Amino acid sequence: MAAGVSSPSPVAVALKDSAAAAVVAALLAVPLLGFRLMDRSQGPELALRLSWIPIAAASVFVGRFALTLGGGALSRGLARRPPTVTLVDRPNRGRRLAGWAMAGFALALPFLPFSDRNLIDKATLVLIYVMLGWGLNVVVGLAGLLDLGYVAFYAVGAYSYALLSLHFGLTFWICLPLAGLLAGTVGMILGFPVLRLRGDYLAIVTLGFGEIVRIILLNWQSLTGGPNGIVDIHRPSFFGLPFTANPPEGHPSFATFFGLAYTPDHRIIFQYYLIFALALATNLFTLRIRKLPIGRAWEALREDETACRSLGLNPTTIKLSAFAIGAMFGGLAGSFFATRQGFISPESFNFLESAMILAIVVLGGMGSQVGIVLAAVILVGLPEWFRDLQLYRMLAFGGAMVLIMLWRPRGLLSSREPTIRLATAPRPALPAPEPAA
Amino acid sequence: MTDQLAPLLTVEHLTMRFGGLLAVDDVSFTARKGDITAIIGPNGAGKTTVFNCLTGFYKARVGRLALNRGEDEMFLLERMEGFRIAREAGVARTFQNIRLFAGMSVLENLIVAQHDPLMRASAFTVAGLLGLGRYRRAEHAAIDFARQWLDRVGLLAQADAAAGGLPYGSQRRLEIARAMCTRPVLLCLDEPAAGLNPRESQELNQLLLEVRRDTGVSILLIEHDMSVVMGISDHIVVLDHGRLIADGPPAAVRADERVIRAYLGAEEDEALPVEVAGDRGVN
């Protein structure tokens, strides 16, 4: 009678667990998949689609079974994630080379044999997101302030340019710094109420702020045109030379001035180089400011705000400067967006855009400039090229994000280079005096 | 040690209440310039609360915290924001649970501590962006200063490594070096010997004495490790249940009836439940 209680085999446990999951899936599938609304001549009608229910249950069963048995490997893979951002020991030559190679490729892109109008257009779009990613990286990657409403600054920049050029006839080159300034100011205004917030709370408030800006744009009909947006936004000129087919008498266009045959490609290529220059400026500015006290203070703030305060750093100014500078780049990108599209409406500035930019920063590896380029190409570029896959585009997008987060939970390139190295710092000429108390 | 008449720090009637809990109750003491002053007491005596009031992490509603830097430079710390206490009054601190910038390099930690002079040298980033010589010189000076401190705490070889990856004892020393890089007049150390082995504690003693000798900084420290407290303190303040129970040189404090009672448990405490009495033992 002393039958020992043997522990059930892992396969039996997995089978039982999977069966339970399959039952739940079948129950859920009845309302979710079991009915289909049919459009009949006599009106809509519910059709039963019972065959889908066992399919759903079976796939859940198989998936759950595989996960339970193979889950060990998965969780071991997850456990390998590094605890903090790793600091690279030696100057990362490879990454710097990759950066230069990318910049060189981007510079040559319009003149490569395989490039056409379509490709340059898509590359322009990718570069907008690269610039937005680099801008948001200041706030999220360096200062560690989770901002879910970044698109608000993008919108402020776009509308600043559109309205200033529409009402005051200012040119793109005057509006560009103004748009940056305005967006930076708005960034600072947003910064004030959220100074005391961190992490999730900050994310929620910035999310709300992004929506507020969009809703203001929608409803302030007299200024922004509401949902109709603003049309016929001025296109940028090449140092005063417009890109038009038939310039008025006495006003040369880009094509006539350089004696070229007019083609709309000129404008496309010019826009491409414009955003390339803007993005590059963003990058150089960020790389430089990282090595200045303010940039180090941002990173210190990300690491430990309390310690910052104990060292005499004022968290208020540090946070506000990060918000303002991040917002400024968003605004610059926004005014480029407006001039490229020639039309803007609140539609373009919804939460999904913010989420996309944040995804680029996070997947790229917080704080990594090259990683952001890779992430922008993957998240913005690839879906554009695979538009034919239509339905499965978003599925693949979601899948790619999940996979990246599983394999590289800290982003594609997560290591960080110190802003200063003792090994390469100049030696003192004279023994420095003892510190005074 | 010097200047008996003018204490660097004067704490008067400091009282701090958290809801119904009186964490610090009418505490007054002074710390003289150039002295190492230790605040000791059983767990929950209010030592860290005093520290947090001093360094601006708590706002004291009752009492006065005066820092006298001489030459009519007087700071009332209870009225200042935390970061100003560090920047203007020159009070630097370390933390009981080390707070380094873990993802940044050891050297970067020390450069961040020199934020204020560097920020001014970079003309609030403008001169720095333009790469002007003034900022470059200031940065070199900051690196040299950091180098001296790295040398002193024995971390020169790890200067470019991540601060979070250092062994525990090194992190403690780095935190002290980082605090000293703000060029303070008063260095507040919250349990600097916690988690150190006896040999490391001795090295810490040595380090603190050297730092004081070479820079003239005054030190205020909270410590449980009696070998540190008795070994280097000039002056000891004993707190228990938020109240000051003894105040004087080590020898006098060691012999004080009330201190012994607070640490070893008194007759009246024996009526308390065992775990409460146990909690109050020497750490």
Write a structural description.
The complex is a heterodimer of chains A (437) and B (283). By secondary structure, chain A is mostly helical. Chain A has two domains: 12-71; 94-407, no CATH class. Chain A is 63% helix and 3% strand. Chain A has a two-stranded antiparallel sheet with strand order 1-2. In chain A, helix 6 (172-191) runs antiparallel to helix 13. Chain A is globular and about 90 Å long. Chain B has 283 residues and is of the alpha/beta class. Chain B folds into two domains: 1-90 and 186-283, P-loop containing nucleotide triphosphate hydrolases (Rossmann fold), CATH 3.40.50.300; 102-183, no CATH class. Helices cover 40% and strands 23% of the residues of chain B. Chain B contains twelve helices and ten strands. Chain B has helices at residues 47-54, 82-89, 106-112, 115-121, 126-130, 133-152, 168-180, 198-215, 226-232, 250-255, 257-264, 274-279; strands spanning 7-18, 21-32, 36-40, 62-68, 74-76, 91-93, 186-190, 218-222, 235-240, 243-248. A six-stranded mixed sheet of chain B has the order 6-7-8-3-9-10, with helices on both faces. A four-stranded antiparallel sheet of chain B has the order 2-1-4-5, covered by helices on one side. The longest helix of chain B is centred in the middle third of the chain and has 20 residues, at 133-152. The radius of gyration of chain B is 20 Å and the shape is globular. Chains A and B meet through helix 10, helix 11 and helix 12 of A and helix 2, helix 3, helix 4, helix 6 and helix 7 of B.
